[in-house]
Amino acid sequence: MKLHKETVIAGLALVVVLAFSAIWFMPTGLRAAPPLVGQTLDGRTLTLEQLRGKPVLVTFWATTCPSCVEEIPHLIELYRELNPKGLEIIGVAMAYDPPEQVRAMARQRQIPYPIVLDSEERIAREFDNVRLTPTSVLVSPEGRIVHYRLGLLDMSELRNTIAEML
User: Fold this and answer.
1) Block means of pLDDT (10 residues each) for the chain, length 166 residues?
2) What are phi and psi of 99, to 5 degrees?
3) Which sign does the torsion angle of CA 136, 145, 39, 110 carry?
4) How far is 155 from 31, CA to CA, in rounded Å?
5) Domain count of the chain?
6) Is residue 16 part of a domain?
7) Is 83 inside any structural domain?
8) Strands 115-117 and 37-40, how do they pair?
């Protein structure tokens, strides 16, 4: 049986599409987290690599996002409860949020976990081009994305997932 050139090309194209689809739709626990390198409000450089070995919740938020503001007390409670056991939380302030407004809210709400300013949108782009807030990403101690959530977190479910990693 003789194969036509078009059939071979179509077959190869299908293989390529399936390979990329497999990578894109991989279970989240198999995807490595992006590096996340950012400047905190107190001027430190923070990276996910520094936190390897600990579960890390990366939460993208904005001061103008009502759901984000509503979630802050729950994140503070989670941080205070589980940080001594190893949990880290990194708040990533969206690029459109004025830095002074972010600083003021962090002071006002007494946010104990580090806040990173993503003024160039680099971190948001690296985490699947985050545009909407709140968006939260849970990274395993091994550096793999295990949970990706747009919208308010189910704190009970999150707490249980994190407890299994500690």
Assistant:
1) 55 44 46 91 92 96 96 97 97 96 97 96 95 96 94 94 93
2) -50, -40
3) positive
4) 23
5) 1
6) no
7) yes
8) antiparallel
